[in-house]
Amino acid sequence: MKLIASVDKNWGIGYKGKLLVSIPSDQRFFKNETVGKTVVLGRRTLDTFPGGRPLAERENIILTRDRSYTNRDAIVVNGTDELEKLLEGRDSDGVYIIGGQSVYEQFIDRCDIAYVTKIDYEFAADSFLSNLDDDPEWECTEESEEKTYYDLCYRFCTYVRKKKD
After folding, report:
1. Among 59, 65, 87, 62, residue whose Cα is nearest residue 78
2. What does the alpha-carbon distance between residue 155 and residue 65 come to, in Å, rounded to a whole number?
3. Which of 1, 32, 94, 140 is the most buried (most CB within 10 A)?
4. In which element (H, E) is residue 59 found?
C-alpha cells in the first residue's frame, strides 16, 4: 500500500476537520497519482470533500466505526480486518491511504511508499501524520526542487520503507 499526504513543518495535516491549505499543483499530483486506483479514507475525511461525496474515477473505501453508515458511491468497512479481507488478492500498489490521522495511524505500518508534500510553514493544526524524517524505518529517496504557491514554499517527497535485513 501507499500513503499520500500534505504536511506542514510539524507534520500537521489538518485543523478542525479541514486541510491546512490547498495548493493546486499538490491537488493535481494527488489526482494524477490516485485516479484509477483505490483510496482508503475515514468517514470524517470524506465529509471534507465537496458535497461530502467520494472521489470520482477512484474506488473509494470508507473506514468507519459507525455500523449504520452507508454510502451508495463507496464501499464501507467497519474495521481493519474487514478492509484487509476486502483487499486480499489485490495488487497493493494500487491502494492509497489518504487520511485522516487515525486512518494513517492504522495503516502506516502496512505502507511501503509515502508521497508527502512538505510545506515549509507552520500552521495551526490538530491532526498529524507521523514524522517520517524521524522514523528509522523510512527513508526519503526523492525530493523535488522547491516550489512556491504565493508565499508558501513546498516540495514533493517520496519516502520508501527500508528493507529489513
Report:
1. 65
2. 34
3. 1
4. strand 59-63
Measured CA to CA in angstroms, residue 64 lies from 44, 49, 82 at distances of: 9, 16, 11
The C-alpha cell 508565499 sits at 151
State yes or no: cis peptide before 100, omega within 30 of 0. yes
Grid coordinates of 134: 524521524
Torsion region of 150: left, alpha or beta (phi above 0 gives left; psi -120 to 50 gives alpha): left
- Going from the N-terminus, what domains does the chain have, and what CATH number goes with each? 2-161 (3.40.430.10)
CA distance 67 to 78: 6
Q: Determine the straight-line distance between the first and last CA of the chain, rounded to whole angstroms.
A: 20
Nearest 5°: the CA angle 91, 92, 97 is 145
Amino acid at 65: R
Residue 165 has pLDDT above 70, yes or no: no
Residue indicated by cell numbers 489485490: 90
Cα–Cα distance list, 32 to 13, 29, 86 (Å): 20, 5, 24
Nearest residue to 57 via CA among 39, 41, 72:
39
Q: Please, are residues 129 and 5 in contact by the beta-carbon 8 Å criterion?
A: yes
Residue 85 to residues 42, 66, 100, Cα–Cα distance (Å): 17, 19, 21
